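Model the whole thing, not chain by chain.
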Amino acid sequence: MIYLRADGRTVGPFDEAELRGRVAAGELPLATMSWCEGEDTWVTLARRWRVPENRAAPLAAIAGIAGTATAFFWLEPWMYAAPLPLQRAGVSAAACAALVLPAIACSVGYWRHTARRGKPTFLAVASTIAALLLGLGAAGQALILGTILENRRATENGSIWYEPSLDALVIDGGLGVSLIPDLERELARLPDLGLVLIDSGGGLLDDAITAGRLLAERNLTVRVDGECASACVALWSAVPDREMTEDSWLGLHRTSSEGNLPASWLRAWTAEGDAQQAALLRAAGFSARLLAAQRETPPEEMHWISAREAADEGVRFRLVAVEEDDDGPAEAAIDR
Amino acid sequence: MNAAPEAQPAADPSALAQAPIDAPKLAVDDDGWQDTRPAPWRRYFARVFDTLLFAWTLSFVLSTLLAATAPTAFEVFYGDDGLLGIPAIDMVLTVLMPVPFLALLLGLTGTTPGKWLMGVRVTRRDGSAIGIENALQRELNVYLAGMGLGIPFISLVTLIKSHNRLTTDRVTSWDRGNDWVVTHRPMGPAQVLLGTLGVLAVIAARIILQVLAA
């Protein structure tokens, strides 16, 4: 015989078979507390009769949260690794929503499915809140990422091509988002390449440094042929084997970070960029005077130095004289 | 509880409402968690765990959304010279921000992540949740009388006072006179394990905060 709790009172005893019938008829909730003489504690009818719980709902909720968390933590690396046309704010926000909405739906479904005594379970509410907060965080991250990507895309993209007459790869123009994929493609296509000519007013610093490291890994010579300014100098400095033609120029100034983002972030990123660039220039032999010039020249201005001046200031590179004759360009290198 | 009254006893109706003399005491009409003895340290660590968990999460979410949509407002709160760089304001907001979310969880389910870990539940005696409005009122009272608004030193005083009151009167000021009861999971291996995890998480979070501050 079983006693029950109802409205704060103990009622009973009841016959078990009768109670089972009432539960089956929906007249009595399984959450009703029950007790039999001799037992140490009260338990719900569900626990007394070991009614199996639905395991699919909690698993769905956990999968939902895991999906949201995955979206949250992998959104940024995924967007940077995505093909260039996909690197847009709208795509990142859509990717975020596509992963977060099912997570929230899972949680809410779990909430409704497992309501006990007319109230949702702790895991259901907690999972919904977690999915919501992670979703909001991911949405914010997607917007920030989108802003950064839009700014990156606004940087001019130059051209990269192989010039058979010079047996050299030519990088001409801005160092934008297409620099790395274009360079990787050309380097894969040209296994015997030895020389890279560059004429660029600069662009994205991180990409320029990465490009420099890619060229350094292939032990390529990078020659400034014309002007190399701003991020281009970082690229050139990141390569151990450097050359300049006599009539070439290097342009130095502070790095800059732009975009509709918090000013403190932009300042921090600029400082980080300046430190990266200064380290590369120092390693390439730029004198303290040139480093000061780079540090003190605002982003909207440029401190130009000729190849001769750079050599006199201790920058390590080969100065190359290029003279056109009937057989094509001839080179005379002066080792420094 | 919504139910049972419709079930009729199989025996003599006079047996109705007569609890057998040896029926165990039932603090709350729900499974387990029947221990009503004061457990101030479990409640303290539950509170600190919840505060850190939600304050960190909310701070990250809010700062991300502000940075994305309102960079100027972001600077006011999170910038180099932002308001949250002032320790007193930071602590007050750290304790205040989780209140609505803790009220939602407590009001709907009777517990929170920290309370669940430390084995603490706040429900009506029939096992039902106390509702969002009551939970919000309770959380605000805890914020005021228990956490001293999160203001350094004042918070320490209110915490000590609340501890003394709970151990002496067996009830805190924010629970006294209300139609709910605070119950605890019985102390067993599972509770020891969960409680240890909760305390370690709080200590780890404190260490991380110290490192970040340095």
